[in-house]
Amino acid sequence: MNTLNGAVTEYSRFAFQSITPRLAGSALGLFQLGGDTDAGEPIAGRIDTGARDWGGTQMKGVAAAYFSLRQTSGEAIFAVGVEDGSVYTYPVALRAKGVSRADPGRGIRENFLSFGFEVPGGQAFVLSGIEVDIRASKTRRVA
Q1: Mean of per-residue pLDDT scores for the chain
Q2: How confident is residue 8, by pLDDT bands cut at 50, 70 and 90?
Q3: Distance CA 20, CA 79 (A)
Q4: At a CB cut-off of 8 Å and minimum separation 6, what does 47 contact?
Q5: Close Cβ partners of 23 (under 8 Å, ≥ 6 residues apart)
Q6: How is 52-117 classified by DSSP, letter by letter?
Q7: Which of 28, 98, 106, 123 has its CA 20 to 30 A from that of 70?
Q8: Tens digits of residue pLDDT in 55-84
Q9: Measured between alpha carbons, how far is residue 113 from residues 39, 59, 69 in Å?
Q10: What is the pLDDT of residue 103?
Q11: CA-CA distance, 116 to 48, in Å (whole number)?
């Protein structure tokens, strides 16, 4: 975890106990970090918010999600996680103007939601903002 900004780096193939920008350590030894792959696989940058109620006790839906990033072409994936552990993914066409949009399905109605953003295939990107248009139900508090 980056203690300055709270960012977390996870390696699924290695049980690193400590990490710096160039080195990582585990019970197996010290490893030098670098390159364009993670054990031969493209590095996929992913951001997850974790589940929370996002204000109020009403059930919520997601009308749209907007992403500000310096990536002018390609595709990304927006993910919406719900209470039962299901994750719904939606394509995001990255636009040259710097703001891209995802349009989730209208059927999501949950109290706790989590959000994710991923640019697969090892493409570099700089994400400067995520804005999710969360709509609270006017009447529903429980399913």
Answers
A1: 83
A2: low
A3: 29
A4: 116, 117, 118, 127, 130
A5: 30, 31, 32, 33
A6: B--SSSS-EEEEEEEEEES--SSEEEEEEE-TTS-EEEEEEE--TTSEEEE---TT--BSSBEEEE
A7: 106
A8: 778 889 999 999 998 766 788 999 999 989
A9: 32, 10, 23
A10: 92
A11: 4
CA atoms of 78 and 70, how far apart (whole Å): 16
User: Comparing C-alpha atoms, which of 120, 115, 119 is closest to residue 132?
Assistant: 115
Task: Note the pLDDT tens digit of each residue in 87-106.
Answer: 999 999 888 888 999 999 78
Tell me the sheet residues that pair with 86: none
Report in angstroms the alpha-carbon separations of 93 from 1, 38, 50, 74: 30, 25, 24, 6
Site of tokens 């991923």? 118
Which tops the pLDDT comparison, 138 or 142?
Answer: 138
